[in-house]
Amino acid sequence: MEATTGTRVPHKLTDKGQATRARILEHAAELIYTKGVHATNNEQLRRAAGVSGSQLNHYFPTKESLVLAVIAWQADRVLAFHRGERFASFGDLDAFREWADFYAGYERAYQEGCSLGSLASEIIKTDLDVHDELASAFDQWRDIFRDGLQHMQRLGRISTDADPTQLANLLLSAFQGGSLLAQVARDITPLRDALQAAIDYVQTFARSPEVDVLQVRQPPTV
User: Fold this and answer.
1) What Gene3D superfamilies does this protein map onto (predicted)?
2) N or C: which end of the chain has fewer CB within 10 A?
3) pLDDT, position 215
4) Cβ contacts of 160 within 8 Å, gap of 6 or more
C-alpha cells in the first residue's frame, strides 16, 4: 500500500530492504509513543531495530523524514483495518456496532489507547512540519465513516436529515476521547460508553423498513 500521507516508500527497495525499513518504522513508532519525539534519538532506534547508523541514515536521512514515514506507516495500519471486509464499508448500523464491540472487547485498548491518536499527541507538540500529514490521516479515517453513512443514506437506511460529515466527526471524536479517558483510568468503560452514546445518536436517524414500505404503497395524492 502506498504511504497514506504522501511519504512514499523509496523506489527499488529489495524485499530485505523493505523489511528493514518496516522494522525501523515499527520501532520508531514505539519509541516516539513511549519517549516522545525529542527524547527519541538515532542510537536508541538503531539498537531497537538492530540496524547500523548507515542503514538508518540511508532510509531516513533526517528526523523529519523519519517522523513523516512513521505517520504514514501508522496511518496505513489503522486505515487498512477500517477499510477491511470486517466492517462491510460501514454500510449499516450493525457494522458500527461491531466496530465499537471490537475495541470495547480488545483487552489492551485501555492500556494502549489509539495508536494513531497517541502518536499524533506526541508529534503535534514538536516544531516539525508534519501537521498537514497528521490532518490528512485523520481526515481519511473520518471519511471512511462519512462514506459509509452516505451510503446508508442513499439506501434509505438513515434519514436525509442526517449530516454524514457531522456524524463521522462525532464517531471519530468519541473514539479518540474515549480512548484517552480509558487509558488514563486504565478501564475500558469510558471508551465503551462514548462509542455506545455516539452510535445511539446515529441510530436516532435510522429509518424503519416498515415505514419505507408504507410510504411506497401509499397512493398518490389526487
Assistant:
1) Tetracycline Repressor, domain 2
2) C
3) 42
4) 153
DSSP of the chain = ---TTS-PPPTT--HHHHHHHHHHHHHHHHHHHHH-TTT--HHHHHHHHT--HHHHHHH-SSHHHHHHHHHHHHHHHHHHHHHSGGGGGG-SHHHHHHHHHHHHH-TTHHHH--HHHHHHHHHTTS-SS-HHHHHHHHHHHHHHHHHHHHHHHHTTSB-TT--HHHHHHHHHHHHHHHHHHHHHHT-SHHHHHHHHHHHHHHHTTB--HHHHHHHHHSPPP-
pLDDT, tens digit, 9 for 90 and up, residues 75-91: 999 999 999 999 989 99
pLDDT value, residue 211: 44
Query: How many angstroms separate the CA atoms of 222 and 57, rounded?
Result: 77
